[in-house]
Amino acid sequence: MIVATTASVPGAEIEEILGLVQGNSVRARAVGRDIVAGLRSLAGGEIREYAELMAHARDEALQRMIAQAESLGADAVVEVRLNTADVMSGTAELLAYGTAVRLKR
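and the corresponding structure tokens:
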């Protein structure tokens, strides 16, 4: 499966647009992780616990989007975008979306 942020795939022609595909993941912070992150924030720098949390959410959202595209028979997903939003205090949603397409053979 080709996943691209561009509107086209270099060297390939889009034969058919299959439609919007999306995948999301909602993650919550954990108390233990918050304590460690709070201590790290005092020293400054990257808060690895939250970076890992969001990386897992991003990967899961992308895999769900790809699974939806595959179920439509897509060869690629173009114009892929990622969006984050707070759902409630301590939780975040990561949404991956794009356009599923079939490429000319």
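(Above: one complete record from the training split.) The domain at 2-27+54-103 is CATH 3.30.110.70 (Translation Initiation Factor IF3).
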